[in-house]
Every structure is written in structure tokens, then in C-alpha cells.
Amino acid sequence: MKHLPRDARVARPWKNGGGTTREVAVSPEGACLDDFAWRISLAELHEAGAFSSYPGVSRTLLLLEGEPVRLDIDGEAVELVRGGEAVHFDGGARVFASPAGVALDAGVMSRDARCRQHCRLMTLSGEVALLRSTAQGLMLLLDGGPLRVVADSGDAILARHDALRFWPEDPAELRLSADGMARVLLAEFVFPGEHTRDGRVEPTG
Question: In this structure, which of 52, 146, 167, 190 has its CB flanked by the most CB atoms within 10 Å?
């Protein structure tokens, strides 16, 4: 597993000037927006604007900082609020975002032809045991912390918005501990033919 600190990310401005994006992780490593299997990023929204279209991609979005963000997804109004539930939508949908002020969101993208995403939001305190479900995944500390993650292969201490990336060879069992409340996103990705640890098998086509 690999610790991905928030401070190591590079901010890239949007073409329309409406915000910036910092990539947290992408698979395969080094992939661009046209050929990733999955991608996780943090985006800062400065003003209202339309989302780029990603047909064939599933998207998950949640608000980390700032005032609520109104999303219009193919004509349906949805509101992102800090500490609220994630919003899932088709990357090919027409999406227009209207932030009430500067806002920071976390986004998970997965290409449907390559893999499927499973996102879990967890709030914890003290010590908790966690079993990962898939071979590839990423844990992002949304709020609170520091969060200590211990596995047979080593340990890491996550600050707020730090991430921890997992590969197939990493242990499935994790031990998490936080002095106060911590809110965590666990994004996992199942590729065709792979077994999940609850016995499910991802279809191959």
C-alpha cells in the first residue's frame, strides 16, 4: 500500500477557468483522461459551469469543503452538501454545477468497459477492523484525523485529505484507529473475472 499525501498533488486549472483539479490516483499509472480504468481526484469549484462529458464512465461525487453545490443532472436538481451522501451519475449526462461559493469536492470515475466501482462512506472513532473487498482500491480521509492504518505489510498515518492506495498484493485486513471522529471514503474497483471477498464474481462481459 502507498501513502499519497495531499501536499504532493499538483493543481491543474480547468480550460474554462472555473476551477482546478488535483489528481489523487489513476489506474493504470500515468493514464490520461482518454484511457484510464479508474481515476480519483479533488476539484476546487470557483464558479458555475458545465461538467465535461465522459460517455461510458460512471461517476461519484461528494463535497468536502465549502457551501452547498447545486447540480443539474440531465434536468434533475441535486444538492451536494458537506458531510452528506455521495451523488452517483452517468459520465455522459449533461451536468451543470452552481456552487454557492468556493467548494472542494472529491470525484471517483471508472470506465464501465474496464471495471466497476464500489464506494463506501464510513464514520469511525477509536479502533476499527476493516476488510477490503477488492484487489484494487483507495482510501481517502475526508474529515477528521489523523487516521492510523495498520496492515501486515506496514502502516501509515493519514492527515485530512491524504489517501492510501491498495494493490492486489496488499493485505485485505486493515486496522484503523483515530483519536476523534474520522470520515473515510473507501473506493474499490472490480475488474472482469475478479472475485470479491464476499464471494461475488464480476461478470466478464
Answer: 190
